[in-house]
Amino acid sequence: MAGKKIGVLALQGAFIEHQQAFERCGAECIQVRSAKEIAEVDGLVIPGGESTTIGRLLREYNLGSVVLGRAAQGLPIWGTCAGMILLAKDIADSDQYRLGLMDIRVKRNAYGRQVDSFEGELDIVGLGPARGVFIRAPYVEAVWNEAKILCTYQDRIVMVEQGPYLATAFHPELTDSLDIHQYFLQM
Amino acid sequence: MEEKGTFGVKAGLAQMLKGGVIMDVTTPEQAKIAEEAGACAVMALERVPADIRAAGGIARMADPTIIKQIMEAVTIPVMAKCRIGHFVEAQILESLGIDYIDESEVLTPADDKYHVNKKVFKVPFVCGARNLGEALRRIGEGAAMIRTKGEPGTGNVIEAVRHIRQVNDEIRWVLGLPEDELMSAAKELQAPYELVMEVRKANRMPVVNFAAGGIATPADAALMMQLGCDGIFVGSGVFKSGDPMKRARAIVAATTYYQDAAVLAEVSRDLGEAMVGIDIATIRPEERMQDRGW
User: Residue B210 in contact with residue B126, Cβ under 8 Å?
Assistant: First the structure.
């Protein structure tokens, strides 16, 4: 949508990469670290990083409740990797902080440690082929209610959409393709 | 086709660590405190740099038992150090499943001429650098992340500041040159020509660049971030201080809100004793860790 202003949650992680990708799409994109900035945006990205670190800062600076307030008004939110973990209702073997907006159960570090991080070819519903960069990545173990699977890789769920929310286990912001950024802009 | 250990996933993990704090820990309990405080990774060590400096003698890779215990204690990435040039220590760390290897001047170098050929490993490496040429030589050897050297274990930020300013100065110089002067610039920097071209293309250091070596306070962390670093390593600064949990949380907040002086003022209050600092001028030249590396 023209004139949409996207915010990338800039508490920790690869937020600049997302910002640059949206700017390459021709969209306005700002880094957000405060309630005031979260109130200004028409879409929010929770980037890759460490989910425990981002979760701790969301709680400590009372930003989690601000995000949930905007979500209740229908704000589109996209989480990549750590962001996907924070969007999940259920995190396997963990009681860490989460926003809990999507009906998915994720498994953290699901493919193993860094030596098991990989790149592979994906096929996404409605978008077609994409390069998937998976870094100490999670995957989705289960979805329920309206959560819709958009991509699996080797029988594991790696991309889910539910209403205004989008979650990817991989990092489109580390590739040259803007397909998924453009897809989110349409949401 | 599925590929592991690509430069993309090596450098990619460093990108995920940006805006975060990597803390030195020596026990599983310290690792849990660091994770709880919001560290984005921990560095598993037998001794923090201040204690290595005090102990003298030869500092080596940590005991695998300690590294394994720390890996089991936390879900965030775990790094560990090998000696400069000690590729067998690196092989051992890779086999342990460590997430990042720091080929570090904090340990006693094992080779007085050559660094580890980091390209042949699946695990990514971070290396220290005092200037752009040193950084690009390490990247040329396969490092996927760079950090300032600073002067480890001193609680004194001046050397880290000197190193990031030097790097920034040299990057600005490279960006300002006409194309026909770049080969000579590479020669002057003692850097691979192709990587000088990468700096031109990226308009910055071609991989993630953290601050390390002497960071002891939230203000130190924010200073390094404002000078352009992508994130912070804290070595002795947390667990050599009076209240590690509180200081760790404060440094994490300062690394996120590095441009917000009101937040910095708030988190800098009542932190208790900082680690005891060392004036660089009182360190004998042969004890300066930053001069290790070639």
Answer: yes
Chain A residues near residue B249 by CB distance under 8 angstroms = 60
Q: What is the CATH number of the domain that holds A83?
A: 3.40.50.880
**Is the pLDDT assigned to residue A1 strictly greater than 60?**
no
> Please, what is the average pLDDT of chain B?
96
In the predicted model, is pLDDT for residue B158 greater than 90? Answer: yes
Q: Which two structure tokens, joined as six digits, stand for B1?
A: 């086709």
Cα dist. B85→B78, B82, B116, B207 in Å? 21, 8, 5, 21
In this complex, is the C-beta atom of B261 within 8 Å of any C-beta atom belonging to chain A? no
ipTM: 0.96
Give the angle subtended at the CA of A129 by the CAs of B12 and A163, to the nearest 5°: 85
Residue B122 catalytic? Answer: no
Range of the domain at A56: 5-186
- The residue annotated as part of the active site, out of B81, B118, B149, B240, is B81
- Which residue is closest to A107 within chain B, CA to CA? B75
Q: In total, how many domains does chain A have?
A: 1
Return the number of other C-beta atoms located less than 10 Å from residue B117's C-beta.
12
Q: Which of A12, A57, A133 sits opposite B8 (nearest CB)?
A: A133
pLDDT at A3: 82
Helices B28-37 and B64-73, packing angle to 10 deg? 40
* Pick from A116-130, A140-154, B45-59, B215-229: least confident: B45-59
Percent of chain A with pLDDT over 90: 98
CB contact at 8 A, A129 and A155: no
